[in-house]
Amino acid sequence: MAGKFVNSETLPTLTLPKIGFGTWKIGGENAPDPKRDATSLAALRSALKLGYTHFDTAEMYAGGHAEELLGRAIRESTIKREALFIASKVLPSHLSYAQVLRACDGSLRRLGLDYLDLYLIHWPSAGMRLDETFRALNELVRDGRVRHLGVSNFDVKLLQQSVALAETPLLTNQMPYSLSDRACAKDGVLAYCQRHDIVLTAYSPVDEGTLKPTRALGVIAQAHHASVYQIALAWLVAQLRVIAIPMSANPKHQAENLAAGDIALSPAEMEQLNGPD
Q: How far is CA 254 from CA 52, 56, 139, 245, 250, in A?
């Protein structure tokens, strides 16, 4: 299948798509919004039909309702569970040993799944005991409720601690990363991930649809008969160990986002886009 990313060093059997599907605003924002259910389910069904296999959610999203809707859409599809890569995240207020185990069970229950392919710490929390958090996370992997571990919004120091505490290779650090937000490239997080075979999963990769086109971006998009958003995604996933999880409820935009993983930018085009943001 075209457009796939293979983490070939520490996890040679795992293949991840370059473009996944984020579920922030599915079913609501910080609390459930039933008025969004029809639109949210239509978006999830469309994404599954188009061929998305990596879905990223969290217990925070719509207060857990995003997980419920994703689980429903998966059950209604004809796609086999093993063909999907489902990720969820634990709230920063749930990082004690017992809370992590409870939170994971809650996510599995809402999703209607027996296991998660990836479970992440959503945000670091002041005063958190990472050793306790990873004691629970490692246990979840050992007993089969979780296949892989990750973190989100972690700086280099916290990444180093996480790598040391995880009994299995840390799969990813999820960070905001886009043409207009390159903080993780400037502060050393991206370089650390690339050196240590950790996938950087870019969220808000097109600034939630508000990406401001530059002249270079427009010219490159025209040359590839693509949208500026597709080129912005292609720039991200052309980088070593970077994947992206855009979200759209529009089937046309979903298809364009997925196709962006197959756009091959030339070195000269990459250099143009690598210029000042």
A: 9, 15, 36, 11, 6
